[in-house]
C-alpha cells in the first residue's frame, strides 16, 4: 500500500461512513481525516504511528501521506484543518494529495 493509497482509502472511508470532528472516530463510526488515514494505514483509527505494533514501513507510508495532506492544506495541524471543513472539502483534498503523490512518483 502506497501513501497515495492511504489518502485515497481515507477519502473512500469518509465518503462511505461520514466525517466527524474533534475525534479520530466517533461512536457512529464516522472519521476525521487523520482517523481515516490511520484506519487505512494501520487498521484502526485510534492506532498512533508510534504504536509498538506498527512496523517501520507502514509508519513511513503513513507519515508520507500525512505530510502530503499537511502540504495540501497549508495548515500545521491536519486534524484542526479537518475539523473546520465539510466532508466534501476533506475528500477533495485527500484525493488531490493522492494524485499529487502519484504525479511525483512517491511509492514508499
Termini separation: 8 Å
**Annotation, overall tally of beta strands:** 0
Report the portion of residues in β strands. Answer: under 5%
Structural class: mainly alpha
The tally of helices reads: 5
What is the makeup of the main sheet?
Answer: none
Let me know the average pLDDT: 92
Which stretches are poorly predicted, pLDDT < 50 over at least 5 residues? none
Instruction: Give the overall form.
Output: globular
The helix content, as a percent range, equals 55-70%
Measured on Cα atoms, how large is the radius of gyration? Answer: 12 Å
The helix/strand order is HHHHH
What's the quick description here?
With 108 residues, the protein is mostly helical. It is built from 5 helices and no strands. Helix 1 crosses helix 3 (56-73) and helix 3 packs across helix 5 (87-104).
Question: What does this 3D model show about the protein?
Answer:
By secondary structure, the chain is mostly helical. Helix content is 62%, strand content 0%. It has five helices and no strands. It has helices spanning 3-17, 33-42, 56-73, 78-83, 87-104. α1 (3-17) packs across α2 (33-42). The longest helix is centred in the middle third of the chain and has 18 residues, at 56-73. It is globular and about 30 Å long. The mean pLDDT is 92.
Amino acid at each position: 500500500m502506497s501513501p497515495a493509497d492511504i489518502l485515497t482509502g481515507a477519502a473512500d472511508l469518509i465518503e462511505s461512513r461520514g466525517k466527524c470532528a474533534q475525534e479520530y472516530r466517533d461512536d457512529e463510526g464516522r472519521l476525521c481525516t487523520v482517523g481515516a488515514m490511520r484506519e487505512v494505514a494501520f487498521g484502526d483509527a485510534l492506532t498512533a504511528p508510534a504504536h509498538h505494533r506498527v512496523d517501520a514501513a507502514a509508519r513511513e507510508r503513513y507519515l508520507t501521506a500525512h505530510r502530503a495532506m499537511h502540504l495540501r492544506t497549508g495548515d500545521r495541524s491536519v486534524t484542526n484543518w479537518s475539523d473546520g471543513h465539510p466532508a466534501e472539502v476533506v475528500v477533495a483534498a485527500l484525493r488531490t494529495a493522492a494524485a499529487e503523490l502519484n504525479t511525483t512518483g512517491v511509492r514508499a
